[in-house]
User: Fold these one by one.
Assistant:
Number 1:
Amino acid sequence: MSLFYSNLQKSLFRYAELVEHSNSLGLSEDAIDAENLFCAFLNQAFGRKLANANEDNKNQHSFDLANKKQNLVVQVTSNRQYSSKLKDTVAGFKANRAGKKKSRLIILFISKKCPKSVLKTVTEANFIYEGYDIPKLLDKVYYSNKTTSQLKKLNQIFQDATSPIFINSTFPEMESRTKVEALPVQPVSINKKGIFIERKALIENIFSFGQTANGILTGGPGVGKSFTIAQLQQFCYKKKVRCSIIRINELLDGTDEELNSELKTETNWISALKKIKLTNNGFKGLLIPAQPPGF
């Protein structure tokens, strides 16, 4: 279950980056598609039976999704002016529902983080509203979907939406779907249950992760960390992407002078790395401090 939930986290954050990037280019299609995506997602995750309100009333004011029987409406927005957007949405919704039954309004921001003041639940006489960002939505999903089968269905919604992009919209697809690149296969031990490692997918995933974040590759002695790093470097070489490995066991003090020598730079190693230009394919180079095999 944790694997599917972890992948769902990545997919949702990746989607938020995709929408943000599209907005910066003046492209509105992703923001519009988000209404239908989150409609399907919320229905699958919480059984809300929401419908896109814009189907009946184009450019529906103050909300996008609705379940009239439950008096529940949802505004899906990528607006980064969180407080003013919340205020305007609430004011508009209240002005159009005077005298109606008690309703609940959720403002779902397609954002990796909103101010806490926006995420509060506010209860008035016959009206409840609250803001959600992606982390708050994920928390809700975690406690409402306990089985692998539930999380697999949720994963599929946003994996399809972000395909074929690996990590975020600013990087091109790594592999042609028709191209198969052979990587050496590491022998693995097999116990009673069986252990099978898809080495090529592992290398691709680590490479994609390294394009947007820093991380630590962990594992006990002999599980294949050094082998994986070596194959990652080979993978980068074939992609014409710079990948430098620093063997930390060969460093005595970790000073700039030692690092300059290890990386074979004539100037300060940080300055030297900054001068390396990205290749035409847009990928970033990787710098990997590594222990020797067996550690």
Note: The longest strand covers residues 103-109.
Number 2:
Amino acid sequence: MKTSIVIFTALLLFGCQEVKETNEPAIAAQTEEVSSTEVPPIVEPPVAKSLTCVGRTILAPSARQEVFGRSDAFVRQIFVQEGQQVKAGQILMSLESPDFARIQKEYLIAKSEYEFQKKTYDRSVILADQESISRQEFDQITREHEVSRTHFLGLGAELKSIGFSLEEIENNKVQEVMNLRSPIAGQIDHIDVVNGTRITSERLLVSIWEVGGLMIELSMLAEDASSISEGDQFTFDLPGREGAFTGVVKYKSMVVNDVNHTVSLYATIQNAKGEIGSGESVFAQFLPKK
């Protein structure tokens, strides 16, 4: 009996050992199969970066207004200086001439003559309808009326072109001094006269840069500029100035500089507030697009 139990136990242990040895190659094959499967690498999305470039402020085309003399006169006093900001209608300088008083007096005389001729003409129209005056007399009155009217209006136009107010003249405020005013709001670029200068109607007096006439010219690597479009906004700093300014791209040049491989971008300034001048250095930054 004891011998049988020993034999049975030995067979059982031998059988278990055989099963274990039989399963090992299968498990190894499965492990080898799993390890041979390659895991795809994790691809990181490209990180958007901001673009920076440098440039300068420039004057936009057709932003310069030139003020000329309007008649023969002398510069009595200049009230502004180069680089100064001015408002539309602000007095730039005063001009003095004896001709100013003379032409204003001629205007008042012409006004009185025209008013007399107009009354005569209106009365003659009624008389002509009643056949109380001859056709020849009516034609003469009509001609004199038209001559007086043309002379009166011509002098008025001349005075207005010089800068005088006809309303003030008609209120008997004859002036020998005329104040020359700025036609636009802007910055005084150049003053071509001094106090006492004799001027003519063709003499350049003052040059003014219109407010908002500044633009920014940026120089950016062509590779970076390929992602910039018209209408893109950017911020820029000015040396020695506090705060950031904003610009908007209006035009991108298609010409690439052969030397430094850059292209030019032209932009308007959104919040200049009159503190930026021409020729100032600019450091610009374009934020990543979403």
Note: Residues 156 and 166 are 7 Å apart (CA to CA).
